[in-house]
Specification:
Elements: H1 17-24, E1 27-30, H2 40-49, E2 55-59, H3 62-67, H4 73-84, E3 91-97, H5 106-115, E4 121-125, H6 134-141
Parallel strand pairs: 1-2, 2-3, 3-4
Length: 142
């Protein structure tokens, strides 16, 4: 691990990295949620390891953004949020990173936005320039 030594003490076990990190920082971006949903036991461990006001910002599953490309979002969102519910009070922004070669699909995006549960904060990373449009911004403002 490239952070062992420069940041984490060399003798610190990996299971203690998060508690060490939480001593210096109040938030973390979790990228591995993009690749695989964490087990419930892992989420409970994370929450139990950090102070009560610590914030986890997570990247949404690539299954939602890259495989399904936001299509038929209800079941995939339900599965994702059933896990994220364990971090609810400690959950910061949920980032949806769209594929770099997927062009604007305004109708699908609007359907997806309507399916998102209320009470969370969302961010979108548009990696293809056709998404950078006034129509998309109007939908995001709703």
């Amino acid at each position: 691990m490239h952070w062992k030594g420069p940041y984490y003490p060399k003798d610190l076990p990996a299971k203690d990295f998060l508690s060490q990190y939480a001593e210096d920082f109040q938030t973390v971006e979790v990228n591995n949620t993009f690749y695989k949903l964490p087990e419930i036991s892992t989420l409970k461990h994370w929450k139990g390891t950090v102070p009560k006001d610590f914030i986890f910002s997570v990247k949404a599953s690539r299954y939602i953004t890259h495989v399904k490309k936001l299509k038929d979002p209800k079941s995939s969102l339900k599965k994702f949020f059933s896990r994220m519910e364990y971090l609810k009070k400690n959950l910061g922004v949920i980032l949806f990173q769209l594929p770099p070669k997927w062009g604007l699909n305004l109708e699908r995006f609007e359907t997806f936005l309507q399916a998102l549960p209320k009470g969370y904060r969302y961010a979108f990373e548009f990696r293809e320039t056709s998404w950078l449009s006034k129509d998309v911004y109007k939908l995001l403002k709703k």
